[in-house]
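W.,

You were right to be curious about this one. When I first looked at the sequence I had no strong expectations either way, so I just let the prediction run and decided to look at it fresh. Below is the sequence, 267 residues in total, followed by the output.
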Amino acid sequence: MAPAADREGYWGPTTSTLDWCEENYSVTWYIAEFWNTVSNLIMIIPPMFGAIQSVRDGLEKRYIASYLALTVVGMGSWCFHMTLKYEMQLLDELPMIYSCCIFVYCMFECFKIKNSVNYHLLFTLVLFSLIVTTVYLKVKEPIFHQVMYGMLVFTLVLRSIYIVTWVYPWLRGLGYTSLGIFLLGFLFWNIDNIFCESLRNFRKKVPPIIGITTQFHAWWHILTGLGSYLHILFSLYTRTLYLRYRPKVKFLFGIWPVILFEPLRKH
């Protein structure tokens, strides 16, 4: 976490329970943590296009919700890191729980008939979200949020491993790439927390262009944003395979992955 001595800017004193390692208001007076803010674009723009494409393709609403939930997380994180206000922190952290619950629902419902609804699982995930929200608003302890979020991510990891091991082994590449990128982001998150003082001292001694590369919380956003996006593709690929579609992962401009598919033709 960041040392206490940080300058104030447009949004006034910090009220959030967390203040990350990036130097506050060092780039502009209007954004508290500039790089931690703009790095959220990867969680905002691509999932919006994914949601639009899902509507056009007539996909089940839960996949549209997955894309939109990731966009909401990115927007909330943008607001949090831009202001370092407690209310904006909640706008970042609580949607992380809600979006993961949507991901869990999708992963456990990928082998059901089309447009089916599992009301028991839906009720359980909504209840879990309500309990986590209520407790977190009361205790205001970030570690509680991190543990709850970690539980959901671990559930997704176990389900993904089951699918690529026992159901669709040829999806290992996509599944493990998503997991690997996410875990690399988690490693950078820990480096940013543990070695914050050393990182700040290093940034004082090197040119700004080099210092930017050590903003590891921004890298956490980029990598977990990409990892989460790839997880949605993995979940959607699994689902459309089960529904006897022909899914394919393509790369827009040779860089950004998207999923395209067509229904299996009837003869």
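Here's what jumped out at me. The chain has one domain: 34-262. And, maybe more interesting for your project: The longest helix spans residues 216-242.

Coffee later to discuss?

I.
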